[in-house]
Amino acid sequence: MDAVVVENLVKAFGEFKAVNGISFKVREGEIFGLLGPNGAGKTTAIKMLTTLLPPTSGRAKVAGFEIKNKQNEVRKNIGIIFQDPSLDEDLTGKENLEFHAILYNIEKKKRDEKIGEVLKLVELEDKADVLVKNYSGGMKRRLEIGRGLIQEPKVLFLDEPTVGLDPQTRRHIWDYIKKLNKLKKTTLILTTHYIEEADYLCSRVAFVENGKIVALDTPKALKDNLGGDVVSLQVDSEGKEEFIRSLKGARWIKNISKHEDFVDLNVEDGERRIPEIMAIANKKKVAIKHVGLHKPSLEDVFIHYTGRTIRDEGGSTKEQMRSRHKAFTRR
Ligand code: ADP
Ligand code: MG
Predict the structure, then answer these.
(1) Probe target for ligand 1 pocket from 15, 44, 83, with the most ligand atoms within 8 Å of CB
(2) Per-residue pLDDT for 326 more than 80?
(3) How many angstroms separate the Cα of 234 from the Cα of each of 128, 168, 300, 308?
(4) Which residue, of 192, 221, 250, is where some domain finishes?
(5) pLDDT of 177-195, one tens digit each?
């Protein structure tokens, strides 16, 4: 059965459509990701699916219930972990879980049982009686994930589950997420703007940009579809368009995307093609400042569909592109 079915869902704030007609299905037991830059509409989509925000149009079913008129049933079957921490810092970890279980009307015996179980799952048993204000960022996030599981949701929504955490803690959280999906068979829907997070965790990923889904598939299929290698050229902006025009004549180039002062080419056997590419550049008297070669990543897929990197957020774009380029060429 499908855990979630979304059909043409729209959320408008005045004239502006934050979510602009998205459709997808999530199968039971999947880890499904909405991946996109800040402002893409991910949180707004999650808020509609969790009944916190009414849709402007379209429809969706979560755990078999319509979000529009079966809100209580939907809520009974889901868990939500939001981007902003919502723990009571002056309570212990265990008290936070108890408070949540009481809200969900779970009776005492079952409550103690569930609390013990989730504390074990997120490995906080020995910190259960410590005040949350003394927890590290990673421990807090683990407690929130545990809390989202108390009521045994069929579908658990995680909005940017590792934002603000250091890379090592992020890895740990990923492992908890994988573990609970495997042990509990909980269907997970997460949003993220971290490419690696989507790549590592998700069975399928939807790329979201400007309120729309621009691509949707398994991470592997998305990358395989680009094919071959990516040859990434940093080009002196003068002559760039002319250069691209002449590259378009080469039939072995499967795809050309440009962003900032970079031109990315999808080709088979990238190493062997670099001399040919340089020859074309020479002929056109275009200065190539830098050449990199790598296997397509989800970032490349995103660039392919949107013509921008996922982290393009105003000012520091160029800097980000450079560091991205460095990271690739180091591999
Ligand atoms: P994401 O989670 O992908 O970063 P959001 O769903 O939070 O994106 O926001 C999508 C867009 O909708 C943004 O441009 C944001 O400013 C806008 N938006 C979100 N909530 C509101 C609101 N309540 N009123 C007006 N605009 C909003
Ligand atoms: Mg968000």
Answers:
(1) 44
(2) no
(3) 52, 32, 15, 15
(4) 221
(5) 998 899 888 999 999 999 9
